[in-house]
């Protein structure tokens, strides 16, 4: 399914066919520079690069970072999330993840666990990772990171597909929101219900 989506994007974005091979995704060689394709009158840039060392844009931050099926394929998924947080615009930027991992049912998770080593050896993917747990731990560890939404939309995949939207709060907005929260809490304590 991912190959179909990948090839569809390759065919429909002008210029992408020159930098994106028509076959399954493979790890990028470390010496290979990122490939950049501009579309929609240069308002959208698609960057093919290694997510763990992706390039910064000229403005040093992205409006949106979209990452698909990557937390299963890196050695340190929380580090990957931290890297994305460093390159997305504070407050207004978004990080969108489409991931797969442990699902709703223990019997299915048992099957994922049973074949995880073989699957990783063949595809480079740890399909049994607890994506929700990884994201929640990163939210606690990365300053300003906030999970806006986390959904498991596909019942046919038994909860193993996870959609995550995150943002990173700037320090000024964090302070302002904390002050507003504290002011609201102190105001509530003096209220008398009628």
Question: Which labels suit this protein?
Answer:
194 residues; Rossmann fold; alpha+beta; four-stranded mixed β-sheet; 2 domains
Q: What would your notes on this structure say?
A:
This protein is α+β, with helices and mostly antiparallel strands. It has 2 domains: 1-49, no CATH class; 64-184, Vaccinia Virus protein VP39 (Rossmann fold). Helix content is 38%, strand content 19%. It has helices spanning 2-12, 16-19, 77-87, 106-123, 131-141, 171-189, and strands at 35-39, 44-48, 64-68, 94-100, 145-151, 161-168. The strands form 2 sheets. Strands 3-4-6-5 form a 4-stranded mixed beta sheet, with helices on one face. The protein has a two-stranded antiparallel sheet with strand order 1-2. The longest helix is centred in the last third of the chain and has 19 residues, at 171-189.
CATH superfamily annotation of the largest domain: Vaccinia Virus protein VP39
Q: What is the tally of helical segments?
A: 6
CATH topology of the largest domain: Rossmann fold
SS elements, strand count = 6
Mean pLDDT: 79
CATH architecture of the largest domain: 3-Layer(aba) Sandwich
**Percent helix range:** 25-40%
Protein name: S-adenosyl-L-methionine-dependent methyltransferase
Biased composition (Basic and acidic residues): 170-185
InterPro entries: Methyltransf_Superfamily (IPR050508), SAM-dependent_MTases_sf (IPR029063)
Region (Disordered): 170-194
Compact description:
The protein contains six helices and six strands.
Helix and strand topology:
Layout: H1 2-12, H2 16-19, E1 35-39, E2 44-48, E3 64-68, H3 77-87, E4 94-100, H4 106-123, H5 131-141, E5 145-151, E6 161-168, H6 171-189
């Amino acid at each position: 399914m991912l190959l179909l989506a990948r090839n569809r994007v390759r065919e429909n974005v002008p210029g992408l066919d020159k930098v994106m091979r028509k076959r399954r995704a493979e790890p990028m060689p470390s010496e290979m520079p990122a490939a950049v394709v501009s579309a929609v009158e240069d308002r959208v840039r698609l960057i093919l690069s290694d997510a763990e060392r992706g390039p910064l844009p000229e403005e040093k931050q992205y409006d949106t970072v979209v990452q698909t099926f990557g937390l299963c394929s890196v050695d340190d998924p929380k580090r990957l999330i931290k890297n994305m947080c460093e390159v997305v615009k504070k407050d207004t930027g978004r990080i969108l993840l489409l991931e797969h991992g442990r699902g709703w049912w223990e019997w299915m998770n048992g099957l994922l666990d049973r074949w995880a080593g073989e699957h990783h050896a063949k595809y480079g993917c740890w399909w049994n990772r607890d994506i929700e747990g990884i994201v929640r731990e990163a939210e606690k560890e990365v300053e300003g990171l906030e999970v806006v939404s986390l959904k498991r939309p596909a019942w046919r995949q038994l909860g193993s597909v996870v959609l995550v939207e995150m943002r990173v709060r700037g320090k000024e907005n964090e302070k302002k929101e904390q002050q507003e929260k504290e002011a609201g809490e102190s105001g509530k304590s003096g209220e008398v219900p009628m």
